[in-house]
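[job 0412] stage=fold_complex status=start
inputs:
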Amino acid sequence: MDVIRPSAGTGEDFAGEIKRQTSQDVAFCYQCGNCTAGCPYSEFFDYPVNQVMHLIQMGLREAVLSSRAIWLCAACETCTTRCPCEIDVAHVMDSLRAAAFWEGRQTEKEIRTFYESFLSSLKSHGRIFEAGILMRYNLASGHPFTDADLGPQVMKKGLIRFLPRNIQGREEVEKIFRKFAERRAK
Amino acid sequence: MKEYTYYQGCSLEGTAAAYDSSIRLVMKSLGVALTEPPDWSCCGSTPAHAVDRLLAGALAARNLAIVERMGSRTLLTPCPSCLSAFKKAQHAMASDKTFKEEVNGLLDSPYDCTVTAKSALQVLYEDIGTGEIARPVTTALPGLRVAPYYGCILNRPPKIAAFDDPENPVSMDRILAAVGVDVADFAFKLECCGAAFGVPKKEMVLKLTAKVLSMALDAGANCIAVACPLCQQNLDLRQSQVNKALGQSFAIPVLYFSQIMALTYGYTPQEAGLTKNIVGPGALIAARRPVEQQPVEQARSASE
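[job 0412] stage=fold_complex status=done
writing structure:
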């Protein structure tokens, strides 16, 4: 089948870049809108997900990577499940967010800070220390009272631990992060 | 006696401890032995795959490699986020040799792609079956009408999850019916609650969560059954935030499906971990009573 590639030859082959990273060919998207119709986050997005696919086709890399949509996607997989062209749309969104993340973009600072807080906890202890993630997030995000209203209930019910527990293989987990960082630096 | 390698996951050590304890009770009653992989680490969950696929693969594969070294081929995990991390890592590594090498390059001990991850729901539904599930039932819960809420990633995307229907799953409906519980038709079985954004994007989660709660009431349910720690947290712990932010007055108990099963197996509300629930299901379970005959008939019709 011939597929029209609007950005081919313009030096802005963003769809090609995405394909190399995800092996998903966004050029196959014919804008049926199934992904957006099922997307629970459309009302919060600046570009609904079908438009994100279209922007990729048009080679508009900057518009896509500076969008809020790629951060606000919570990866529910509805788009991937329903795409008639069998594009793994959620995987494409993951890859766009990853690109924005490593370029240091701050479009959705809170979400970025939350991910960083989570991964930092994982790296330090080998497992997640829920209270620690919230504390780090509250300090780093400039929203120091996030979920403070839930504190009394959470404590009364004994839902959180106050001290982290490290696994024995903590260094092995830290090494995964270190080797990954070395690979990225290359 | 059936045996499974059981990956508890971080949430089930913390805010979702009642999910862990009730799954263990249910499995014990069904004669299923659970063994924990030694020194497991976090699966990476959403934040890992949100920032890099290779990092996510390695964090998941460290655990899969431990299970592989135990000589086990199946990993049971109750948490859909862990499940999805393991299934995605397994799928990507098994189908892409270069990716497999890259992931193994980050690990001390390599993973050879021999482990299949299954949710607790899948093990109960497919390996044990509704007939067996009905056997230990001693207690009826006549006050309960349950909306079964699967959450978004337990059985999606279908190619990777390979379990139940991706648009209208029925496993939880049938398991709950098999233990004699009244199950409502629920249109929002799969609609996302906002997942991990409860902290960084609260307004989004509260809106999405309110829709799920409201649809459960519309379905005639007085209680929601969940299979995911994050869904439980958003629907139960954040219900007070939903009420405050959106001017609502929801008071719907949100139980792990395994807590409901444990109650029907005769465990006390305390043993089933109900003291950990924020919105108390007290009034709904007050009417519980012994069943004279096991609801085998119900199980039979549920599995048909």
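[job 0412] summary: The mean pLDDT of chain A is 94.
[job 0412] exit 0
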